[in-house]
Amino acid sequence: MANSFDREEYSAARVKALESLLIEKGIITAQTVDKVIEFFEKDMGPFNGAKIVARAWVDPQFKARLLADTPAAIADMHFPRGMAGAEGENMRAVANTSQVHNLIVCTMCSCYPWPVLGLPPYWFKDPTFRARAIREPRKVLKEFGLDIPESVEVKVWDTSAQIRWFVLPERPAGTEGWTETQLAAIVTPESMQGAAKVVVPAETKTQGESE
């Protein structure tokens, strides 16, 4: 989004100032902040979502369960604590196909499936993105570098505290025979938001054949 980098830096500076003030007042400690950061680095983040997507790509039965009852299917993955907390208990997955492309947005604030996607990116919280994604999703996606053909339907899902949506992207061609670990490595947070497709990096196009 235009000028989002400048706004993000401004917001980051304000957060840092607020953090310093809270530490100075004794409300939190530096260790408190470190623990929160560590939690999102190790337990809760897009690496969980990537594993879910990879499993769905190789296991049709798991994919069916994921789309029918997302929390129950995720529970089968035996992830660390926190997957069914306030940010994850009402998660729902929706699948991209050759006929339908899905995009998630939160029109009210920035509700997000933290357990599987981590912290929301700045642009997801941006009021301009939230408004335009509903009105002109194709144009917004094109600005992200994703040109959706007119023959493909674009569906926009308004995520909220009641339902936190995420996208099951299409499996890219050329990954036949890949392991779940190999597949998970190419899944990006943007693809699970519907803002991008999963692509096979040039240097790994032969990965599935050589390993």
UniProtKB/TrEMBL annotation:
Its EC number is 4.2.1.84. One of its GO terms (molecular function) is transition metal ion binding. This is nitrile hydratase. Fe(3+) binds at residues 106, 109-111. Belongs to the nitrile hydratase subunit alpha family. Keywords: Iron, Lyase, Metal-binding. Residues 11-196 form the Nitrile hydratase alpha/Thiocyanate hydrolase gamma domain. NCBIfam families: nitrile_alph. The keyword Transcription does not apply. InterPro entries: CN_Hdrase_a/SCN_Hdrase_g_sf (IPR036648), CN_Hdrtase_a/SCN_Hdrlase_g (IPR004232), CN_Hdrtase_asu/SCN_Hdrlase_gsu (IPR023900), Nitrile_hydratase_asu (IPR018141). It holds the Pfam family NHase_alpha. It is an enzyme of class 4 (lyase). It comes from Nitrosomonas halophila. It catalyses: an aliphatic primary amide = an aliphatic nitrile + H2O.
